[in-house]
Amino acid sequence: MLSLLSLCPPFVILLWYTMVHADGSVVQTWNFLKQHGLQGFLEIWPRPSAIAWKIIFVYGAFEAALQLILPGKRVEGPISPTGHRPVYKANGMAAYFVTLVTYISLWWFEIFNPTVVYDHLGEIYSALIFGSLIFCVLLYIKGHVAPSSTDSGSSGNLIIDFYWGMELYPRIGKSFDIKVFTNCRFGMMSWAVLAITYCIKQYEANGKVSDSMLVNTTLMLVYVTKFFWWEAGYWNTMDIAHDRAGFYICWGCLVWVPSIYTSPGMYLVNHPVNLGTQLALYILVTGILCIYINYDCDRQRQEFRRTNGKCKIWGKAPSKIEASYTTTSGETKTSLLLTSGWWGLARHFHYVPEILASFFWTVPALFNHFLAYFYVVYLTILLLDRAKRDDDRCRSKYGKYWKLYCNKVPYKIIPGIY
Ligand code: NDP
What we know:
cholesterol metabolism, sterol metabolism, about 5% strand, oxidoreductase, 2 domains, about 425 residues, sterol biosynthesis, 7-dehydrocholesterol reductase
């Protein structure tokens, strides 16, 4: 675990360097490092500059203010194993809208040029790497000395506590939810902001935006818009309801999302491809279809749970399993497991359109350099692991009922194959 942990920060920097300064070529970066060794690597690594800190601070403060100030419906999260139910203000879509309008207006009215962000990207990632590490240490300390709810605890191992986190729902005061900030308002929001930044950078550098960049940016924006449209649903997923606030999820959202998730767009800035209208439209429409199917899988599961199974799935009454389980306090509860619709095809079928969508926003780069596809490969590995983790968790939660589900729906992700 430790070795994996220490590999992440250098990788973020090497990916940025290769995309921006080495023509997207892993071989070029490799040759440079072979020739110059550790000294060369240290030269590549940008120092966090004052302007990088300023950009991060202003962006973070703006998002935190929107999270606190903007109005939103009161939404309850799922009940935790200790019986705690978190309450949220669902103002994600409003924050997303205000952020994008503000950012584009700043550029349009020549108040702030987003190319400054691109030109200081290495310094920004470097600052994020160190800043987020400190943030995770503070989360660890908070978990020990001032946990926000009963959903907190130590495994007894310092490294595991730091890596997986201690608190499930850390908050500042009563209402500022830290995971909503790190995962949604900082991480996912930065994906949209950087997608627009890359587009503007290409426009300012070449006087036009290539159709490949337009397809990439549109698909990534559709995906992030879908995310904020469904943000309250995200608060019911593993990231929020099961994964504690530690290095794995928080550092990932604060550093890995802005750098790795946005990387296909970062690559396209210096590698514009002219696809032609027909091919561009085919890729765009197929990508949107994948995003829609992914959304519909999540929607189907949540609608099914919200209505207690009293809804239509693909025009029919759903087939289901009533699964009971025991909470840590010894109470017996029941959950419904949907066994028809998308959830009857495979137990994690929703990962298929998720991976395909990422492929379709990357494929406008064509196949000159593997690195553009790093996110697609990374996501595939992440989701294969996640399907296994989720299966293990559900098996230990639902026991024989999960076995029944596995008998009825035998495939993990791809129907008929895996
Ligand atoms: P979810 O948490 O939404 O779904 C899994 C949970 O749903 C299980 O833990 C279980 O929770 C419940 N469940 C499982 N089977 C059924 C069933 N048949 N019927 C009803 N409930 C069931 O999954 P994820 O968090 O993994 O995914 C959510 C979204 O986020 C997806 O769109 C996914 O593609 C996306 N995602 C994107 C990632 C990225 O990096 N781009 C990474 C991970 C996810 P319970 O305990 O309530 O029963």
